[in-house]
């Protein structure tokens, strides 16, 4: 098995949407929301059962309904926003080459741009059913879609990330 994996691909709008969704799903902010919304629901229910339906309860219910609506509509807005950002970032539309080796990830774009991300400089990584997501920080990440890899390359990428990047995990997104 070769020490370096070299793949060429072009980032698609769907890749971008999936990357943003995967990133969002595992962000700390999202985890807090997934706890707070049900907890607030329970507290509001207890308040309704224990106290009279006064003006405060009605106002709390209305405010909570707005928050829940926004929370539930977020995936729709996120998808729309991700598609708009993809259309704005013209560099994502060009073919790129990725090389993954023991030192890290080398990304080369058609226009000559080149960058090395050393595994030691990575914050963490995630593996979903469709992608590998490699984080430089909580906000900046690189996506490697599994659709561009064969099975042996998927295994090798997992080995490279497990051996070189702290905080990795496989998930079933």
Could you describe the 3D structure shown?
This protein has 173 residues and is of the alpha+beta class. The chain is built from four helices and eight strands, in the order βαααββββββαβ. The strands form two sheets. Strands 1-2-3-4 form a four-stranded antiparallel β-sheet. Strands 7-6-5-8 form a four-stranded mixed β-sheet, sandwiched between helices. A hairpin with a 3-residue loop joins β5 and β6. α1 runs antiparallel to α3 and α2 packs antiparallel against α3 (55-88). The mean pLDDT is 82.
List keywords for this structure.
173 residues, alpha+beta, PH-domain like, 4 helices, 8 strands, elongated
In short:
The protein is α+β, with helices and mostly antiparallel strands.
Write the layout of secondary structure elements.
Elements: E1 5-10, H1 13-25, H2 28-50, H3 55-88, E2 95-100, E3 104-109, E4 114-118, E5 124-127, E6 131-135, E7 141-145, H4 151-164, E8 169-170
Parallel strand pairs: 5-8
Antiparallel strand pairs: 1-2, 2-3, 3-4, 5-6, 6-7
Low-confidence stretches: none
> Largest sheet, if any?
4 strands, antiparallel
At the first level of CATH, the class of the largest domain is Mainly Beta
Q: How many distinct beta strands?
A: 8
Shape: elongated
Specify the CATH architecture of the largest domain: Roll
């Amino acid at each position: 098995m070769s020490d370096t994996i070299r793949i060429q691909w072009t980032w698609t709008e769907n890749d971008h949407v999936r990357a943003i969704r995967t990133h969002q799903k595992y962000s700390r902010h999202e985890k807090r929301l997934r706890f707070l919304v049900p907890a607030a629901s329970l507290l509001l229910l207890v308040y309704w059962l224990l106290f009279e339906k006064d003006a405060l309860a009605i106002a709390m219910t209305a405010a909570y309904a707005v928050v829940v609506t926004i929370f539930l509509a977020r995936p729709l807005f996120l998808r729309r926003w991700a598609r708009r950002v993809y259309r704005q970032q013209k560099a994502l539309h060009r073919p790129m080459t990725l090389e993954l080796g023991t030192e890290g990830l080398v990304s080369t774009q058609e226009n000559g741009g080149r960058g090395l991300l050393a595994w030691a400089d990575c914050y963490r990584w995630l593996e979903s059913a469709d992608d590998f997501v490699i984080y430089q920080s909580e906000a900046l990440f690189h996506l490697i879609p599994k659709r561009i890899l064969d099975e042996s390359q998927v295994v090798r990428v997992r080995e490279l990330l497990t051996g070189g990047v702290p905080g990795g995990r496989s998930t079933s997104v």
